[in-house]
Design a protein that fits this description.
The chain is of the alpha/beta class. The protein is built from seven helices and six strands; from the N terminus they run βααβαβαααβαββ. It has helices at 26-29, 43-57, 70-83, 106-112, 114-121, 134-150, 164-174; strands at 16-21, 63-66, 87-89, 157-162, 193-199, 202-210. Helix 4 packs across helix 5 (114-121) and helix 6 packs across helix 7 (164-174). The radius of gyration is 17 Å and the shape is globular. The protein starts with 15 loop residues before the first strand and ends in a 12-residue tail after the last strand.
């Protein structure tokens, strides 16, 4: 990862970005769309964050940024307690704002916004519930991640604590994928993470939905 590419002559700095989804909330269990609604972790969610933090601390991260929503900030706090890292909270890392969809269950969204939901699943640019486009989420989140990654020393590791939808769009943007293909990145389970590593030709996906054995993804975009 640290060598130069014979074709480009560019040398990789060997940095890593760990994108970590927050722990479980009550709305996740209810399959209720959270979006930018500020929902706290359940007791299970706190326990998930503590377990994951012990694993992530072994990576000896150099910096950490987090969404300022309670569920992400509390998750980040567990890793900060173990590592002593300061956490930079940024509203740009919040989950997708989804307007009228927020607070509705999956079944209620399909019942009330069936065609909008179907269009989104087809890969069309949709303002779900009158909210943000996925590309707009990437427009606000990805530059913040890159800004903090650029501050790392060579071989440094940045932990980004955020939300399922925002993490997916950010990964898609950093990998240079067209937005239509972002859905091809499967969702993250609560308190699992993905790892991007720096190669000579840019960022590449090293791990996805890591941290536990495979388990159901609850409330992906939240």
């Amino acid at each position: 990862m640290n060598g130069s590419d014979a074709g480009t002559g560019k040398k990789s700095r060997g940095r890593r970005i760990v994108l970590w989804r927050h722990g479980q909330t009550a709305w996740n269990l209810e399959r209720r769309f959270q979006g930018s609604t500020d929902i706290e972790l359940t007791e299970t969610g706190v326990a998930q964050a503590r377990r994951a933090a012990r694993l992530l601390a072994s990576l000896k991260p150099d910096a950490m940024i987090s969404s300022d929503l309670k569920r992400a900030a509390a998750t980040a706090g567990e890793l900060a307690a173990l590592t002593g890292l300061d956490v930079t909270h940024d509203a740009a890392l919040r989950e997708t704002y989804a307007g009228a969809w927020q607070g509705l269950t999956h079944n209620e969204i399909i019942a009330q916004f069936g065609e909008q939901y179907a269009a989104w699943k087809r890969g069309e640019p949709v303002r779900r519930g009158g909210g943000e486009l996925e590309t707009e989420v990437a427009d606000r989140a990805a530059p913040v991640v890159l800004e903090h990654a650029d501050k790392l020393a060579d071989d440094g590791t940045l932990v980004v604590v955020s939300h399922g939808g925002t993490i997916r769009t950010t990964i898609g943007r950093l990998l240079g994928l067209e937005s239509y293909h972002w859905e091809g990145l499967g969702g993250l389970s609560n308190c699992c993470w993905s790892v991007l590593g720096e190669g000579a030709r840019g960022w590449r996906l090293l791990e996805h939905n890591a941290g536990t054995l495979p388990e159901p993804v609850l409330g992906d975009d939240d």
